[in-house]
Amino acid sequence: GAGVSQTPSNKVTEKGKYVELRCDPISGHTALYWYRQSLGQGPEFLIYFQGTGAADDSGLPNDRFFAVRPEGSVSTLKIQRTERGDSAVYLCASSSGGTIYFGEGSWLTVV
Amino acid sequence: KQEVTQIPAALSVPEGENLVLNCSFTDSAIYNLQWFRQDPGKGLTSLLLIQSSQREQTSGRLNASLDKSSGRSTLYIAASQPGDSATYLCARASGTYKYIFGTGTRLKVLA
């Protein structure tokens, strides 16, 4: 596609529920990133994929968070037993060396 | 801790002014640095990428410089316009992929 696509754009879920956020990177980009951004803050690194493997998942806050990229293209960020503190914008980005391109984000609200 | 600090946090200027946004970082082992623009409720748009071997990059009315020895980067915006109003974020990468973001400078250009 022309840019990084993220779905859903908005998600409201109840505390304790399971959520999946999808990212479709720019075609041909081998590097894929997930970031989380809270209001008034800069994006915070979560995880980085190079191809199908998670090369660095050091930013995942705890074991409720997991991400996959089974075929080296689309990625899914999975959040189990959501908590109100998980409310944020989840940003996906991709790159092919150098410039990094971000999607519009998935706005998650946990009520 | 690899911190990125942006000053000022907010800035309001009349249209036509030249302005400078500052970014400082604690780790001089920098791979590259990017400046991004973020409009309210939107994702990030890359403005300028400065590779570690470079000292500055220019695009239109924007110029970004990088001084690794002092741990600073500046974004210069010439002849500011109301359409420049947004949050500007700098991000540094110490390796080939992991970007650490500042909290941004919220710019408002008054017509």
Overview of this structure, please?
- The complex is a heterodimer of chains A (111) and B (111).
- Chain A has strands at 5-7, 10-13, 19-24, 31-37, 44-50, 53-56, 65-68, 75-79, 88-95, 100-102, 106-110.
- With 111 residues, chain A is mainly β.
- In chain A, strand 7 (65-68) and strand 8 form a beta hairpin.
- In chain A, strands 2, 4, 5, 6, 9, 10 and 11 form a seven-stranded mixed beta sheet that branches. In chain A, strands 1-3-8-7 form a four-stranded antiparallel beta sheet, with no helix packed on it.
- Chain A is built from no helices and eleven strands.
- By secondary structure, chain B is mostly beta strands.
- Chain B is 0% helix and 58% strand.
- Chain B has strands spanning 4-7, 10-14, 19-25, 32-38, 44-51, 56-59, 62-67, 72-77, 86-93, 99-101, 105-110.
- In chain B, the strands form two sheets. In chain B, strands 2, 4, 5, 9, 10 and 11 form a six-stranded mixed beta sheet that branches. Chain B has a five-stranded antiparallel beta sheet with strand order 1-3-8-7-6, with no helix packed on it.
- Chain B is globular and about 40 Å long.
- The N and C termini of chain B lie far apart (40 Å).
- In chain B, 34% of the residues are buried.
- Chain A binds chain B through residues 4, 31, 33, 35, 40-45, 48, 50, 55-56, 91, 93, 95, 98-105, and chain B through 4, 32, 34, 36, 42-46, 49, 51, 89, 91, 97-104.
List the helices and strands and how they pair.
The complex is a heterodimer of chains A (111) and B (111).
Chain A (H helix, E strand, L loop, with lengths): L4 E3 L2 E4 L5 E6 L6 E7 L6 E7 L2 E4 L8 E4 L6 E5 L8 E8 L4 E3 L3 E5 L1
Parallel strand pairs in A: 2-11
Antiparallel strand pairs in A: 1-3, 3-8, 4-5, 4-9, 5-6, 7-8, 9-10, 9-11
Chain B lengths: L3 E4 L2 E5 L4 E7 L6 E7 L5 E8 L4 E4 L2 E6 L4 E6 L8 E8 L5 E3 L3 E6 L1
Parallel strand pairs in B: 2-11
Antiparallel strand pairs in B: 1-3, 3-8, 4-5, 4-9, 6-7, 7-8, 9-10, 9-11
